[in-house]
Design a protein that fits this description.
Elements lengths: L1 E3 H11 L4 E4 L6 H4 L2 H4 L2 E4 L3 H15 L3 E5 L3 H15 L4 E7 L16 H6 L4 E4 L3 H17 L5 E6 H5 L1 E3 L19 H11 L3 E5 L4 H4 L10 H9 L2 E4 L24 H7 L2 E5 L5 H4 L10 E5 L2 H4 L6 E5 L2 H11 L9 H18 L3 H11 L5 E4 L3 H9 L8 E2 L10 H12 L4 E6 L10 H6 L4 E7 L4 H9 L14 H8 L2 E3 L4 H11 L5 E7 L5
Parallel strand pairs: 2-3, 2-4, 4-5, 5-7, 6-7, 9-10, 9-11, 11-12, 12-13, 14-15, 14-16, 16-17, 17-19, 18-19
Antiparallel strand pairs: 1-8
Helix pairs in contact: 1-7, 4-5, 4-19, 9-15, 11-15, 17-18, 17-23
């Protein structure tokens, strides 16, 4: 079968399991749209390429499948580079396909011209390549999707020249083949080695990161396997999770310190450990907010990314393994052993840290508790860079992993709304909530129209303190007179009405809870505007 290459690409993506594409058509990429309907793919029209990228990100996080976006040459690609950078830092599978000019070296002044868009995209994704033939396009798509399944999930960029998209091309790709599971480690003795070190340790400390989510739930909707809790019980280990790893360990586990790695006092906990096991986490700056965790003990680092395993600090012992495989096999090899960690010690430490959070950001935790009580247990949350989220994600108990998504790493504003739209599209009838601050919400508020257009039941919690509160606090700590941190906001209720969205401005926590419950069943988004001085 011969079709224009743009149409062939859509058919190939459908065959590879892609059901939804996010994007914006233009004269340079319209050939990619020729095959979308014929292939049976749903296209979601964003209002800005940045929104399309965040929607693809949110969809990928909700479903575990790659989020795919189509953008035009030049400015379309530039606009989606921020979401690509966010997906790279958070290990999210995303495939961005853009058109490109056929020639740029000898010609200037062309529409949407960039000097080197392939190189520009490469700065924010795993790789960026230009297909010079139909066969190359097919091979690169399979390479991208295959690597997302086998290796660390990260965004890829494929650019296809306009004339090539328009040209007739043979099918040239093989109907879906099994791309295979992630590789298992070649070392034969790592199970026995890890089990022995854990049995010998008096204060083992285990940290579960976002890369270990599969160890908590092997597939969406399945019951929690006992492997993680068995691993902790048999080893006697205390535990932390990163923000992305919350829910892997039950919050009420007796030796669990929670998602409080960023508390300065967690360095003291690490200093007490005589063995650290880091599973699916780099323990990076955005996990710790300091340069080192604080321990001198050996670290068994379990990851599938060779780059992470190449780190030599902290007496690292690298194990290239899938998190679920590691936890399951080591737990089976362990014999029950005690440790010197004390339940009362862990509980007291957590209480002290929670008091710190309340003192740092007064008034937020009661609102977070009330919001949590109003939501179904399987709600998926997408948050923005806002003080409400910073406080809530440290103390909000999670009974399952992969259900709170935050723009860590790259740390962009404007993430929550479009990402939640993508997540809601991916989850169907299951509940999704967006949490944004009054300033960051305005980065991508135009995507509210997409949620209205698709009639998505989506509560949007808008935390309004009338300023860049986190930056103001940081300036004060640095003894800088706060400058450029107060902004004039629009009337958010009228703004929601202009878009055709529902809205509410509760004056108490009871009213907020009622508004949230109503929003979960409303045929369309609801902007719930919460002033920071809401009655507690």
């Amino acid at each position: 079968m011969k079709r224009p290459l743009g149409a062939q690409i859509s058919h190939m993506l459908k065959d590879r399991g892609v059901d939804v594409i996010f994007g914006i058509p233009g004269v340079h990429n319209q050939e990619m749209y020729r095959g979308i309907e014929e292939a049976g793919i749903t296209h979601v029209l964003a209002r800005h390429e940045q929104g399309a990228g965040f929607m693809a990100d949110g969809y990928a996080r909700a479903t575990g499948r790659p989020g795919v976006a189509y953008v035009i040459t030049g400015p379309g690609l530039c606009n989606i580079m921020t979401p690509m950078g966010q997906a790279y830092s958070d290990s999210v599978p995303m495939l961005v396909i853009s058109s490109s000019l056929d020639e740029t070296a000898a010609t200037r002044g062309q529409l949407h011209q960039m000097k080197d868009q392939e190189a520009a995209a490469r700065t924010v994704c795993d790789w960026s390549e230009t297909a010079t033939s139909a066969e190359a396009a097919y091979a690169l798509i399979d390479r991208a999707l295959g690597e997302m399944r086998r290796d660390r999930a990260r965004p890829k960029h494929l650019t296809v020249p306009i004339a090539l998209l328009e040209a007739t091309a043979p099918k040239g790709w093989v109907t879906r083949a099994d791309l295979g599971p992630r590789p298992v480690p070649t070392e034969a003795n790592w199970v026995d080695y890890a089990a022995l070190r854990l049995q010998e340790a008096k204060r083992p400390l285990v940290i579960f990161g976002g890369g270990a989510r599969d160890a908590g739930f092997p597939a969406p909707g399945e019951a929690r396997p006992e492997a993680v809790m068995q691993f902790l019980r048999r080893s006697g280990a205390a535990s932390f999770t990163t923000y992305a790893g919350r829910g892997i360990v039950l919050d009420d586990a007796p030796l669990h310190f929670g998602a409080m790695l960023a508390r300065p006092g967690s360095a003291e906990v690490f200093a007490k450990a005589d063995l650290v096991v880091a599973i699916g986490t780099q323990l990076s700056e955005v996990d710790l907010w300091r340069s080192r965790a604080g321990h001198d003990a050996p670290t068994i680092r379990v990851d599938i990314d060779p780059e992470v395993l190449a780190v030599t600090q902290d007496l690292q012992i690298p194990v290239r393994a899938d998190a679920q495989d590691f936890v399951t096999r080591v737990a089976a090899a362990l014999e029950v052993s005690g440790s010197d960690w004390e339940v009362a010690e862990v509980a007291a430490t957590r209480q002290r840290w929670q008091a710190e959070i309340e003192a740092e950001r007064p008034g937020i935790l009661p609102v977070a508790d009330a919001l949590r009580a109003a939501l179904p247990s399987d709600t998926m949350i997408y948050s923005d860079m806002t003080q409400f989220a910073y406080a809530a994600k440290e103390i909000w108990p999670m009974d399952r992993p992969g259900h709170w998504h935050h723009p860590s790493g790259f740390g962009t504003l404007g993430y929550a709304l479009p990402a939640a739209i993508g997540g809601k599209i991916g989850r169907g009838d299951k509940p999704v909530v967006a949490i944004a601050g009054d300033y960051g919400f305005q980065y991508t508020l135009q995507e509210l129209m997409v949620a209205v257009e698709l009639e998505l039941p989506l509560p949007i919690i808008l935390w309004d303190n009338g300023k860049l509160g986190e930056i103001e606090d940081s300036m004060i700590r640095a003894q800088i007179a706060p400058n450029a941190v107060i902004q004039k906001n629009p009337d958010f209720i009228k703004l929601a009405d202009a878009y055709g969205a529902a809205s509410a401005r509760p004056t108490s926590l009871v009213e907020m809870q009622a508004a949230v419950k109503t929003a979960l069943t409303h045929a369309g988004p609801t902007l719930i505007h919460i002033l920071s001085d809401i009655a507690l």
